[in-house]
């Protein structure tokens, strides 16, 4: 009779344990991200297998790679949609190729802390220990100390090689290219021992048909359960390895290992490669019999003892039956009382009570919680129908639902409001009930439960409100992204308008009608420039610039713009205190507030006409005046009011008037963002806005902004003169119209200007004549090469050359980033002649002084 050797048995246990650990390890890893974020599915991973490390790595007869680890990598990769190509080579060369990045992955790398500095590893898929192989009959090696003066063989670069060096196993360590060579040498009588992983050694012995090589434990121990020679520290945790830093591929391969373990592929491959290797032996019948008796005799003794004990237990049970029954009855009574307490507590915690309606007597009975929900007296047993209905505002609807259940068996499931009798508080409840009948089918009573769902309803309403706010925020973010995206193109267009208008102004004779008209064009263009800045601020692509100011001039100027579009049927009255303020605000935002409020008033009175009154003054606000504005502090405020005599606004609309996208206007007259933006601007400035309106009597908006110290108002700065120059400038802009306009503008100031319309062309021009130019002015956003990249290339050639970077909008460059690159000047488009002239002169003069 034969059985598998205990080695085979325990190897199965080890194998399933390792497989379980593998699964747990992979599941413990962070969830792999989607495949298209990690490794392209169509990419073929480059891998390699060493010359001979059976059964993990072998070379097939056709020269291709094979073995357990090769098949495992193929299966894991295929499970996640990847493919692998293999080549074959010496191990020492392969691991260096992986470290250099020439390979994507190796299938068989033993983990160590030293290797972890060079590679990234997947979860280990098998753990095995090394052992020592010797020639049969050699009794000179029985433990590790016997190896010290022996010649031991290892494969160059293998874990066994690293282990032997680290532990100083021997003074004579001989390396071979592969382990087949080592086993052939040992079998031929050369050297003394081989240190290698046991499975690999057994496979090579079988392959080479060597009968004079054995592991140390098989030579020394012959018992059923041999004790192997322990090589402390020589545990090989085999993993897939990738070049350091490629965690995406590690996550992908871990996912593949998890899949093939769960679908049984791992077990199939293990049986294929390892089952033929593990040795088998016969177990003597005497040893089998001894093992059976060792278990059977104690078991028979245990059964006998159990029978005696059980007989005694039956006698005791019969004797104490009456006593036990009394105890059970007592315990049941206690448990019933405890259950009743728990039931009452559960009703209280869940705010759920039960009730019962007697059809004949028309009275209600309820649990303590049901009485508590209605605010009824806890000591009263029953209540009449009128008493209950007095707590229900919709008593007709609730009573009709009860009648429908009794007369027509229509399900009773109802949500309604109640007024608590003890506190007068309004609550929302939900009740469910069913009809109970006698044996003849006559209705007897209605039993149900009632639950206070007020808190849940409020929570649901809060959740809906938060979801709505999130949706509005996402809409605002989308609009902000769109606004930021068009700012660059709009600034280019505006730059051409301003530039050529300034040229026309300079060429127009004083006092001419053209000069007066062009001044209006420039005035509107400058306002448009500020509005673009406001668009960028709204889209979070540019910050606002709050300064101390007195708003009367801005309000007056904005109203003048409004007058041009308002029909004569609307009378505009101004009541402005010119000394109102100062406040800390962005001038463009003040313009926006007045423009939006006046435009809304105009739309309200467009059909019938009316009166529009704008007033501005300072006022003191007390805590009582603030009311619900908890975030605003009392003090001195600027008060701007815009009043119209339009149709007014209802209370329902006033409650939503500052919500984003809420509008009552027809398509084309409003987006629903105006008042929302105003509300945000005022709030961010530490103020608040209110709306007073009565249908049929008009509407008044009040804006309050806190005053700041008068002493921080900026002093009037002297007009800085425009100083001409004669330096040579290279001007780069991908818009040919802007490049031509800039050249014209700078040449009028005396400069020599060369223009280019892309960064690559400009770089070539500069490289041909690096000493010709005194200054480069470049746009940031250009095809082929951006302005910041052009500046870096130019400064590598001439570090002392000043560069001015211009941008209408760029999320990737700021003034701080530009200066950190070595750029001397930073200008926001659209460019104004005076600002550009001053900046050019300043940059050139600063560079001259620095040198």
Number of helices: 27
Total separate domains: 4
> Strand portion, in percent?
15-25%
Largest β sheet strand count, sense and barrel closure: 8 strands, mixed
How would you describe the shape?
flat
Rounded mean pLDDT is 83
Characterise this structure:
- With 851 residues, the chain is an alpha/beta fold.
- The protein has 4 domains: 6-274, 3-Layer(aba) Sandwich (D-Maltodextrin-Binding Protein, domain 2); 351-452, Beta-Lactamase, CATH 3.30.450; 551-712, Histidine kinase-like ATPase, C-terminal domain (Heat Shock Protein 90), CATH 3.30.565; 728-850, Rossmann fold.
- Helix content is 46%, strand content 21%.
- It contains 27 helices and 30 strands.
- Strands 5, 6, 7, 8, 9, 10, 11 and 12 form an 8-stranded mixed sheet that branches. Strands 15-14-13-18-17-16 form a 6-stranded antiparallel sheet, with helices on both faces. A 5-stranded mixed sheet has the order 20-22-23-25-24.
- A hairpin with a 5-residue loop joins strand 2 and strand 3 (65-66).
- The chain is flat and about 125 Å long.
List keywords for this structure.
851 residues; alpha/beta; D-Maltodextrin-Binding Protein, domain 2; Beta-Lactamase; Heat Shock Protein 90; 4 domains
Short description:
The modification 4-aspartylphosphate is found at residue 779. This protein is an alpha/beta fold. The protein folds into 4 domains: 6-274, D-Maltodextrin-Binding Protein, domain 2 (3-Layer(aba) Sandwich); 351-452, Beta-Lactamase (2-Layer Sandwich); 551-712, Histidine kinase-like ATPase, C-terminal domain (Heat Shock Protein 90, 2-Layer Sandwich); 728-850, Rossmann fold (3-Layer(aba) Sandwich), CATH 3.40.50.2300.
